[in-house]
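Person: At home tonight, work slowly through the protein below, taking as long as you need, and write a paragraph about the fold.
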Amino acid sequence: MKAKNSKKWIILVLVVALLFRVVLLGAQDLYYDEHGYLNVAELFLEGESLWEVVLAQPPPLAMWIQAIPQYIFGSSAFSVRIMEALFGVVTVFLVYLLMRKWYDEKTGLLSAGLLAVVPIHVLFSRSAFVDILVTLLAVLAIYFYEEKYPWYVVGLFFGLAMLTKFSALTLVALYFIFVFLRVFWEKKRWEYFKLHFLRQLFVTVTAIVVVLVATGFRPQNVFALTYGFVYLSVIQSVLSSDPFYYVLLLFYQGLSPLLFLVLIVGVVYLWKHKKGKDSLLVWMVLSFLVVTMLQGRSSVRHLVVIVPFAVMLVARTVVVLLPQKKKIISGVIVALVVFYPTMWTVSAISDNLDYTPWSELGEFTNSLPPDATI
C-alpha cells in the first residue's frame, strides 16, 4: 500500500473514530457512576483531596484530568465525558502504529478501523468511566517498551496507568511475562535474559515511584492507595456471584458476535502457526480473560483494557486468512468485518441515548406501597 494512500485511510479512520465518540456525547443522561465522577471532579476543583474522597477506587489521575474540561466548560455530561472520547481516538491511532510495526500497513489500518467502531470501545469512550484512559496509558507503556524507549519513559507511563486504574498492572504484567518467558522457548542468550529482567525491574520500580510520588507520601494517601488496591483486586471480586464464564458472554456482546467468532478462529489458527507477534496476541487475550474469570469480574468495563489486543488479533486473523489473489472477495470480507460491528455499535448508541435514571429506578419505585414517601 502506498504511503500517500495509507495516510488518507488512517485520517479517515480517525475521523470516523472521532465522530462515533463525540456526536451527541452529552445527549444521554449520566449513569450513576458517571455522576460520581462528575461530583468528585467538582470536589477537586473546590480544593478537596481525591485520595481521601474516593480512597483510590479508582486512583485519581483520570478525575484530575476530567476536572480540566469541567473547569473550562462547567459541569455537564459533555464535559465529564469528552476526555475519554479523545483518549479513545488516540488509542485507535496507537493501535495502528503498533500493528504497523509488528506486521504491515494493511494490518495496522484494519486494526485501527476495527477499534474505531467496535461496540465496547466506542461505548466506553462515550462515558466518564476511566477505562479508556487506563487502556491508552497501558498500551503506550507496551508500545514504548517495544520501541526500546528508555526504561524510565516506559515506567512513567506504566505508573500513570496504575494511577488511573489497577487493571493496568494485569495487562502490563502479562506482557512482561510473555517477553520474559520467550527467552526460554526461543533459546535466547543469557545477555537477552538479563537485559529484559533488569529492564522490567527498573520499569516496575519507576512505576511504583510514580504512584507513590502522586500520593505526596502522605500517610493518609498511602493508606487510601493500599485500601483501593485491596478493594478492587480482592474484595470486589469476592462479592461476585456470576458464573466464571459470564466474562465470555460480556466479551461476546462487547465485540459483537461476528468479531467474537473471528477471535476464536484466530486464537486457534495463530497459536498453531506462531508467526511474528501472533503468539503474543493470543497470549495477551487468553491470559487476560482467564485472569478476569478467576477474579470473578461481572462488569464489561473490566474487559475494555484488553480490547485493543482483541481487535489486533481479529485483524491479523482476517488478513492471514483472506484469499490474497481474489481481491474482490477479500474486499467484501473486510467490508463485512468492519460493517457488522459498526451497525452493532450504532444500535447500542441508539439504545443508550434512550437511557434515563428512571429506567433503573422506575420499576423499583412502582413496586413500593402507594402511601410510601419518596
Notes: DSSP finds 18 helices and no strands in the chain. The radius of gyration is 21 Å. Residues 327-353 form the longest helix (27 residues).
